[in-house]
C-alpha cells in the first residue's frame, strides 16, 4: 500500500498500549490512514475512542507501541526526545480546547513563545507575531493580556501562536469546545480560510457537527477506524 | 535552540511575577550569607588585632619569666618561687648566648604618680637602656636614661603617653618633677605611643632605672638581685629558636636544675602569636560553619518554593514542551530561577554582612577586614546553593510528561 507522494501523514497498523494498573489498555488497535498535504480533516469519536491518543502521536507528544507513523517523510517511532521537541516546534502547531495562553504575557508575547524555542531573534519574533495577530484579526489587541480578551479572541491568539513557526500541520484539539456556538463558527471559519491558504489542518473532536465543517472525517471507535469519508465541502 | 538571554528573561519574569514570595525565599540565603560574612570579618579583625598587638610588644622577642609553664596553660611556681631570675642571669645571657641584639632585665611595679595636684596610678617598670631596643620602644621627646643613671640609681623617669597626658594635661612634662612612693623623680623623656594591645593600653607606663625601682619601689619584694623578667631580642628571626634553646640550657645550668621541671619559662612571642592565630582561626571557622548552617536552611527554603512552583506551573511546563521546549530548556529555566534567587540573596546578604561587620568591629574597636575573596566566596557559595537545591525541582519539571501536564488543571 504505497502512499501517494503528497501524503503528509501516513499511519500504518498503528498500535498504542497503555498500562493502567494491572490492565493493558489498547488505546489504538491497528489504525491505518493517510492525510494529504493541504488537507482539512477531522478525527472524530466519543471519549475513550482513542482519538486523543491518535492526536498525541501525530503531535509528537507520544510514540506508538507498534506500527508505523510517518509525518512529513519522517518516522515518528525513530525520534528521540530532542527530535520530538524540535518536531513539535517546527512541524506541529497546537491549538487546545482551553487555549493555554500564559496569563502574565501579552497576546504578542504568547505568539512569540514557539519562536523563542526556535531561537529566533527578538526583532524577527516581534514582526512575525504581529503579522500573525493581524492575520487572525487581533492587530489592535496585541498588548492585551489573555484575561482582557474574550474566549474567541483568546483562541485566535492561540491559533496565531500555532502558526508562528510555519508548521506543516495545525493540530487542533476540540478548538471550539470552550466557545459558544457562533464564536465556534467563527473559529471554524478561520481554520477553513487558513486551509484555503495552504495549511494542513487536523481537528480532533467528539462533535460530528464540528467534524462536518471539514473536508474529510475519520471516525474512531474503540481504537479502530470505523469510517473514513470525504465530504463535499470543497471551496 | 533557545537563546541564553531569553532563558534569563523568562527566569526573571517568573521571579518578578511574585515579588513577595521571591523576597521571602531569598531571605534564608540573605541571612546565611550575611552572618557568614560578618563572622569571618569579625574573626579576621580579631586576628589582625592579635597580630598587631603581639608585634607591638617587640619583634624577635623572647621573654624569660620566673616559674614553670606547662603546655601553654597555667603558670606554676617552682623552686625559687618568683625570685628565681636575677640580674646575674641577665648578665650571663648577655655574655654567653650568641646572636642576640639586646638583653634587658626589668622589674615590674605599680605606683601612684603625683604631680601638681593630679595623680595617676600606673605600671612602673624598672629597666635598663637595653629595654628600649628589646621592646621596640622609642623616645618621642627628651632623652632616655643611660647606663650611668642605672648604676647610680638616679631618680629619673620616662613617661608613657597616657601617663603624661593625665598627669601633665597642660604643661610640657620634660624637666618637671613627680612624686612616686614618697620620693621625687625628674621627668627626662616621653615615650612614643604604641597604642592599644588587646584591652591593655600600652602607653599607660612609666620607665625608671632598674636599680632605682628595686631600691625604692619594690625593695621589699624578692631579693635584692631578683628581676621580674628578662626581655631578650634575637638578632634575627631565624636565630630565635636557637637563642631560646641556648638560654634555657644556660639558665638550667645556672639554676642547677636536673629534673624536667624548670623554675623559669622562656616565652617565644612568635610562637605565642602563631598559637593565638591558630586559636582565632579555629574560632572563626567555627562561627562561620554555624552561620553556614543557616545558608543550608536557606537552600532548603529555595528548594521547597521551587517544588511548589513546579507543581503550580505544571500546565505551563506542559504547554512549553508542546510548543517545542526541550528537557534542557525547562531544566535550565527552573535551575536559573533558583540560582537567580540565591545569588540575589547572596549579593544582598553580602551587603548586610559588610554593614553588620562594620557595626560589630566598630563597637569592639577591631580593624574591619572584608576582603575581595570573602565577597567572591559569598557570591560563589550562594550560587552553589542555588544549583544544588534548584537541581531537583528543575529536574522534576524537565521530566514532566507533556500529555499529563497539559491535562492538569
Describe this structure in words.
- The complex is a heterodimer of chains A (235) and B (409).
- With 235 residues, chain A is an alpha/beta fold.
- Chain A has one domain (38-64, 80-230): 3-Layer(aba) Sandwich (Rossmann fold), CATH 3.40.50.300.
- Chain A has seven helices and ten strands.
- Chain A has helices spanning 51-58, 81-90, 107-117, 122-135, 151-163, 181-196, 208-211; strands spanning 7-20, 23-36, 40-44, 66-71, 74-75, 92-95, 169-173, 200-205, 216-221, 224-230.
- Chain A has a six-stranded mixed β-sheet, with helices on both faces.
- In chain A, helix 3 packs across helix 4 (122-135), helix 4 crosses helix 5 and helix 5 packs parallel to helix 6.
- Chain B is α+β, with helices and mostly antiparallel strands and 409 residues long.
- Chain B has two domains: 4-53 and 277-407, no CATH class; 104-226, no CATH class.
- Chain B has helices spanning 4-16, 19-57, 87-96, 130-134, 147-151, 161-167, 210-217, 240-254, 269-312, 314-322, 327-364, 372-398, 402-407; strands spanning 61-66, 68-69, 75-76, 100-115, 118-127, 139-142, 156-159, 177-180, 183-191, 196-197, 200-201, 205-209, 229-234, 264-268.
- In chain B, the strands form three sheets. Chain B has a six-stranded mixed beta barrel with strand order 4-5-12-7-9-8. A two-stranded antiparallel sheet of chain B has the order 2-3. In chain B, strands 10-11 form a two-stranded antiparallel ribbon.
- In chain B, a hairpin with a 2-residue loop joins strand 8 (177-180) and strand 9.
- In chain B, helix 1 crosses helix 11, helix 3 packs across helix 8 (240-254) and helix 11 (327-364) runs antiparallel to helix 12 (372-398).
- The longest helix of chain B has 44 residues, at 269-312.
- Chain B starts with a helix and ends with a helix.
- The model of chain B is unreliable at 76-80 (pLDDT under 50).
- At the A-B interface, helix 2 and helix 3 of A face helix 1, helix 10 and helix 13 of B.
Amino acid at each position: 500500500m504505497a502512499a501517494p507522494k503528497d501524503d503528509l501523514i501516513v499511519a500504518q497498523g498503528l498500535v498504542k498500549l497503555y498500562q493502567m494498573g494491572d490492565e493493558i489498555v489498547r488505546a489504538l488497535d491497528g489504525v491505518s490512514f493517510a492525510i494529504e498535504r493541504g488537507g482539512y480533516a477531522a478525527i472524530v469519536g466519543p471519549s475513550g475512542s482513542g482519538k486523543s491518543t491518535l492526536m498525541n502521536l501525530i503531535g509528537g507528544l507520544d510514540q506508538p507501541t507498534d506500527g508505523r507513523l510517518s509525518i512529513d517523510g519522517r518516522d515518528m517511532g525513530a525520534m528521540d526526545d530532542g527530535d520530538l521537541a524540535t518536531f513539535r516546534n517546527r512541524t506541529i502547531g497546537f491549538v487546545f480546547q482551553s487555549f493555554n495562553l500564559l496569563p502574565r504575557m501579552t497576546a504578542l508575547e504568547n505568539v512569540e513563545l514557539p519562536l523563542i524555542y526556535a531561537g529566533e531573534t527578538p526583532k524577527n519574533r516581534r514582526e512575525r507575531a504581529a503579522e500573525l495577530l493581524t492575520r487572525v484579526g487581533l492587530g489592535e489587541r496585541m498588548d492585551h493580556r489573555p484575561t482582557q480578551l474574550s474566549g474567541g479572541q483568546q483562541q485566535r491568539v492561540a491559533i496565531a501562536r500555532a502558526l508562528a513557526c510555519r508548521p506543516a500541520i495545525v493540530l487542533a484539539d476540540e478548538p471550539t469546545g470552550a466557545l459558544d456556538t457562533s464564536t465556534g463558527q467563527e473559529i471554524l471559519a478561520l481554520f477553513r480560510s487558513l486551509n484555503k491558504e495552504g495549511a494542513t489542518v487536523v481537528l480532533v473532536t467528539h462533535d460530528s457537527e464540528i467534524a462536518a465543517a471539514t473536508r474529510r472525517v475519520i471516525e474512531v471507535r474503540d481504537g479502530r477506524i470505523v469510517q473514513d469519508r470525504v465530504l463535499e465541502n470543497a471551496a | 535552540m533557545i537563546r541564553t538571554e531569553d532563558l534569563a528573561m523568562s527566569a526573571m519574569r517568573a521571579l518578578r511575577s511574585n515579588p513577595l514570595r521571591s523576597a521571602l525565599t531569598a531571605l534564608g540565603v540573605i541571612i546565611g550569607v550575611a552572618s557568614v560574612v560578618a563572622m569571618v570579618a569579625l574573626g579576621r579583625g580579631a586576628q589582625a588585632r592579635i597580630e598587631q598587638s603581639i608585634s607591638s610588644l617587640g619583634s624577635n622577642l623572647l621573654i624569660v619569666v620566673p616559674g614553670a609553664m606547662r603546655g601553654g596553660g597555667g603558670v606554676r611556681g617552682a623552686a625559687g618561687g618568683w625570685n628565681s631570675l636575677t640580674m646575674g642571669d641577665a648578665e650571663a645571657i648577655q655574655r654567653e648566648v650568641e646572636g642576640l641584639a639586646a638583653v634587658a632585665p626589668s622589674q615590674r611595679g605599680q605606683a601612684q604618680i603625683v604631680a601638681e595636684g593630679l595623680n595617676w596610678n600606673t605600671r612602673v617598670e624598672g629597666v635598663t637602656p637595653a629595654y628600649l631596643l628589646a621592646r621596640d620602644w622609642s623616645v618621642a621627646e627628651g632623652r632616655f636614661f643611660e647606663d650611668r643613671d642605672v648604676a647610680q640609681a638616679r631618680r629619673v623617669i620616662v613617661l608613657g603617653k597616657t601617663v603624661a597626658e593625665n598627669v601633665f594635661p597642660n604643661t610640657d612634662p620634660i624637666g618637671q618633677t613627680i612624686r612616686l612612693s614618697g620620693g621625687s623623680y625628674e621627668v627626662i623623656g616621653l615615650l612614643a605611643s604604641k597604642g592599644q594591645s588587646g584591652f591593655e593600653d600600652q602607653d599607660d607606663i612609666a620607665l625608671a632605672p632598674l636599680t632605682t625601682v628595686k631600691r625604692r619601689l619594690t625593695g621589699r619584694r624578692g631579693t635584692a638581685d631578683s628581676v621580674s623578667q628578662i626581655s631578650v631580642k634575637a638578632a634575627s628571626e631565624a636565630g630565635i629558636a636557637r637563642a631560646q634553646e641556648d638560654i634555657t640550657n644556660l639558665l638550667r645550668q645556672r639554676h642547677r636544675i636536673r629534673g624536667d621541671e624548670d623554675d623559669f619559662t622562656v616565652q617565644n612571642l612568635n610562637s605565642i602569636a602563631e598559637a593565638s592565630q591558630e586559636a582565632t582561626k579555629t574560632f572563626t571557622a567555627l562561627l562561620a560553619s554555624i552561620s553556614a548552617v543557616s545558608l543550608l536552611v536557606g537552600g532548603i527554603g529555595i528548594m521547597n518554593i521551587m517544588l511548589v512552583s513546579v507543581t503550580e506551573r505544571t500546565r505551563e511546563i506542559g504547554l512549553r514542551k508542546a510548543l517545542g521546549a526541550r528537557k534542557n530548556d525547562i531544566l535550565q529555566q527552573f535551575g536559573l530561577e533558583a540560582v537567580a534567587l540565591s545569588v540575589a540573596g547572596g549579593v544582598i546578604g553580602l551587603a548586610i554582612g559588610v554593614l553588620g561587620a562594620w557595626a560589630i568591629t566598630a563597637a569592639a574597636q577591631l580593624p574591619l577586614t572584608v576582603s575581595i575573596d570573602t565577597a567572591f566566596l559569598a557570591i560563589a557559595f550562594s550560587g552553589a546553593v542555588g544549583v544544588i537545591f534548584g537541581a531537583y525541582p528543575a529536574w522534576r519539571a524537565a521530566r514532566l510528561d507533556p500529555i499529563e501536564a497539559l491535562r492538569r488543571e
